[in-house]
Design brief:
mainly alpha, two-stranded parallel sheet, globular, binds zinc ion
């Protein structure tokens, strides 16, 4: 799995885009969207917690059903009971982005095989192993291993910093527009 920093960072950048172009800006709605985006983009990795609680080993069900596009679709359909149609597409896209990112995650960047996952479950197409790795994965054996610390530091610079910058740009842009409107 890629770190939650990658999943949440890219999701926050994605949901910030429509807010940047909106004329009306609700601070609380933007904050709620950022939080929901981060949560949905990390949702498939809750299989680690479920595995730990049920079997004592976080890896038992990791990269299972929750890392499939069907899971993303079912999550969107469940949200359909209280969310409008267009928002459900966002839910699908954010959860599916996790599956896509993890399918391009591995130990070494470049033309090295990524981890094996089953994104098309339950279709009988077998496991997918991409020939290219774009994101570093984390080592599950020891969370505080030097390798993990290195990956987290790199992801903070490569994903958390750009995400924070985009959020800051949206806030400054919209709040200054609001001040200008009130002043005018
Ligand atoms: Zn994952």
């Amino acid at each position: 799995m890629a770190t939650p920093i990658v999943h949440a960072g890219l999701a926050m950048i994605a949901v910030s885009t429509p807010f940047y172009w909106q004329r009306q800006f609700s601070l609380s709605k933007y904050g709620a969207s950022l939080a929901a985006a981060a949560l949905l983009a990390c949702l498939p990795d809750f299989d680690l917690l479920v595995s730990l609680l049920c079997t004592g080993d976080i890896r038992t069900w990791h990269f299972g059903i929750s890392h499939s596009y069907l899971f993303a679709l079912v999550t969107a359909l469940v949200c359909r009971s209280w969310l409008p149609y267009d928002k459900c597409w966002w839910v699908f896209g954010l959860v599916a982005s996790h599956v896509l990112i993890d399918s391009l995650t591995g130990a070494e960047l470049g033309w090295h095989s990524a981890v094996e996952i089953h994104p098309w479950w339950p279709l009988p197409v077998g496991a997918l192993q991409a020939p290219v790795t774009l994101f570093y994965g984390v080592y599950h054996g020891n969370w505080l291993a030097p390798y993990n610390m290195q990956v987290v530091s790199g992801d903070l610079l490569a994903f958390a910093l750009p995400a924070a910058s985009v959020v800051a740009v949206v806030l400054v842009e919209k709040l200054s527009a609001r001040v200008y409107r009130q002043g005018g």
